[in-house]
């Protein structure tokens, strides 16, 4: 059977095992990193290429890679919508974040918070606390991780609140999901797939792109905390 190699952002990590299990046209092998790291990897390889067939990045990341010649034009396939949320250690009290005022108060009341340094959620959260006028207070007690899952910091008791994409929070055991950010301050991210120009099996990869955007994948995305982009 054909093996397709995928470079994927962490946001869809929770959904990919089910997708790989359900997809019978090829065996899927996926490696996960933040979009920023994957873009750097593609750029570093340049014309030598990356040993992969498909990349799943933020929509903006896919567009950049098309413009730079790493992903084939016309193959961008929007797959999932992702939302930012909050998690706590399993069994810990869940703060009220149902309104902007309650969310702001919860951030100020928390003794410790984790968010990411380079992920889309972390970059947005950093700008959001600036907008809310609480950046100094939050950053004074924040653990800002370089890569990986902020929810691990909540699960092991290092922090009270973990901020990240909902789908990334949900892959970590030992946490409880509090909820998404209030709609007024929510950031909805689109994650897209594209065919790498160096793929050695483009026809099989294009078939997978069509599958990723199909209704069959929607339940798997929703179970992982995502919404289908279609």
List the helices and strands and how they pair.
Elements: E1 3-8, H1 16-22, E2 27-32, H2 35-45, E3 54-58, H3 59-67, E4 77-82, E5 84-89, H4 100-109, E6 113-116, H5 120-131, H6 135-139, E7 142-145, H7 151-155, E8 161-165, H8 166-169, E9 175-180, E10 189-195, H9 202-212, H10 218-223, E11 227-228
Parallel strand pairs: 1-2, 1-3, 6-7, 6-8
Antiparallel strand pairs: 3-10, 4-10, 4-11, 5-8, 5-9
**Stretches where pLDDT falls below 50 for ≥5 residues?**
none
Query: Mind describing the biggest β-sheet?
Result: 6 strands, mixed
Terminal CA distance reads 29 Å
Question: What order do the strands of the largest sheet run in, or round the barrel if closed?
Answer: 2-1-3-10-4-11
| Total count of helical runs of at least 4 residues | 10
SSE-based structural type: alpha/beta
- As a whole number of angstroms, the C-alpha radius of gyration is 18 Å
Overall average pLDDT: 94
User: Which range best describes the helical content: under 10%, 10-25%, 25-40%, 40-55%, 55-70% or over 70%?
Assistant: 25-40%
Report the principal-axis shape: elongated
How much of the sequence is in beta strands? Answer: 15-25%
SSE string: EHEHEHEEHEHHEHEHEEHHE
Number of strands: 11
Could you please describe the fold and organization of this structure?
This protein has 230 residues and is α/β, with parallel strands linked by helices. It is 35% helix and 25% strand. It contains 10 helices and 11 strands. The longest helix is centred in the middle third of the chain and has 12 residues, at 120-131. The radius of gyration is 18 Å and the shape is elongated.
